[in-house]
Amino acid sequence: MTQRPYVIAVIGAGPSGIYAAEALSQQTEVPVRVAVIDRLPVPFGLVRYGVAPDHESIRSIRNTLERTLEKPNVRFFGDVRIGSDLSVAELRSAVDAVIYAYGAGSHKVLDIPGEHLPGVMAAPEFVAWYCGHPDVHPDVIDDGRSRLDVALIDNAHAAVVVGIGNVALDVARVLIKSAELLTDTDMADEVLESLARKQVTDVHVLGRRGPAYTAFTTKELRELGQLPGVDIMIDPADLELDPSSQAVIDRDKVAARNLALFREWAARPRTGAPQRLWFHFWTRPVAVIGADAVAAVQVERTMIDSAGAVTGTGEREIIPAQLVIRSVGYRGVALDGVPFDAGTGRVPHAEGRVIRDGSFSADEYVTGWIKRGPTGVIGTNKSDAVETVTSLLADIRDEAIDPHHDPDELDRLLADRGIHPLDLAAWHRIDAAEIDLGQSHGRRRTTLAHRHELLAAAEDPASA
Ligand SMILES: Cc1cc2nc3c(=O)[nH]c(=O)nc-3n(C[C@H](O)[C@H](O)[C@H](O)COP(=O)(O)OP(=O)(O)OC[C@H]3O[C@@H](n4cnc5c(N)ncnc54)[C@H](O)[C@@H]3O)c2cc1C
């Protein structure tokens, strides 16, 4: 086997891409150089732009991820979008193998009347906004990119959150929590200012199934019951179990713990607190009502039919609300030049080896959400990346991949195009600027939400 390093490009510097780089850099059998490429100026994917800012202990996983990017045979290439700055074919021609780790960049819709009204937004957009993602905080307003209308949040008194997963919990918590309790986060100043203006008194969480079927982590759920000034509202009748719910509770410990919490809350005397968080089980939205903006949501009671599917009972009710956030799942999108299964929203593969036109493609691999769909916790991406890298290393051992590339070809290709990737030193400058800015007005750090701010902070003073 040759001693010339294999050049592996990883598209996406989220957890899955960085865990793939870690698995490649830790092994000693095959010499490698790993290029971790991200379209954003900063690494860490949803650890920076998804995990809730008030969950600092989880967000601090970025420190561990950063150590991988510091390894001598790993390099970060920030601000390079594959598909436009470089095509997938061009990248493949400059490296020995590619690992797709570009996440699930889209979201599902409810497909109900009124969903287009101002005031309805997808949880991924709302989350991206409160995490300070530059796509939602563009430099130039109305430049065609996604931008959230902050006035809709400022003016809402009641909000409906559709979905019963952990993202729905994050969204509900950020909407109901006092902004004062969010000051000790890294939220962008403008986000915090907006959240301080919000007037939300009621947040309604809708689940089309019963309380036995929630996908909540109990720790995160419990947090809601500890929010000061917030009553949790649950109809005790919703907590009675039908035989199928009982069967779930009997076999699933997390579901049983969550149910116990709901029962504890339902039995709590109401305190008359100024804010309320409602859980509506067996309830689905059927229409968003409003003339120019959301005014209410029409919901329908649901039940499980004889085939085990959720179906409407015809019993309807109106919940007044000015904001509707649908948290019904992320979804992978096609990247030009990469095989894609539109049915599952994933790249087709077996054990991480990409399947192109019905057979394995010699130099293409996949990991993370774009491989398995938007499921699991951050750690799930580690075992997932190890599986993919194990396949890649086995293929190198079997000489299915030749190290035919000059290790510097990617740098030359980018330089020829006039593309100047941001390296890890640039991230360190951004990191320092965010800490300095935050500390300058009594905060721990402040996320720079606009691309121009990130690029200015990334500039190397020595090269000015
Ligand atoms: C709102 C939310 C909250 C979460 N909270 C938690 C939590 O508290 N605890 C937990 O364990 N897990 C949590 N998760 C799950 C966790 O974030 C995911 O498991 C993980 O981020 C998936 O990793 P990934 O690398 O596959 O995708 P991502 O993290 O999305 O990373 C993909 C990267 O690819 C980049 N990219 C996309 N397209 C291109 C392109 N064309 N060219 C170059 N780069 C590109 C993106 O910019 C991004 O950085 C949360 C997820 C969400 C959505």
UniProtKB/TrEMBL annotation:
InterPro entries: FAD/NAD-bd_sf (IPR036188), FAD/NAD-binding_dom (IPR023753), Ferredox_Rdtase (IPR055275), Ferredox_Rdtase_adrenod (IPR021163)
Enzyme class, spelled out: oxidoreductase
Keyword set, alphabetical order: FAD, Flavoprotein, NADP, Oxidoreductase
Cofactor names: FAD
UniProt catalytic activity: 2 reduced [2Fe-2S]-[ferredoxin] + NADP(+) + H(+) = 2 oxidized [2Fe-2S]-[ferredoxin] + NADPH
TM region positions: none
NADP listed as a keyword: yes
Enzyme Commission number, as recorded: 1.18.1.2
Gene3D superfamilies to which the protein is assigned, alphabetical: FAD/NAD(P)-binding domain, NAD(P)-binding Rossmann-like Domain
Domain spans labelled FAD/NAD(P)-binding: 8-208
Homology family: Belongs to the ferredoxin--NADP reductase type 1 family.
Protein name per Swiss-Prot or TrEMBL: ferredoxin--NADP(+) reductase
Species: Microlunatus ginsengisoli
Lineage of the species this protein comes from: Bacteria, Bacillati, Actinomycetota, Actinomycetes, Propionibacteriales
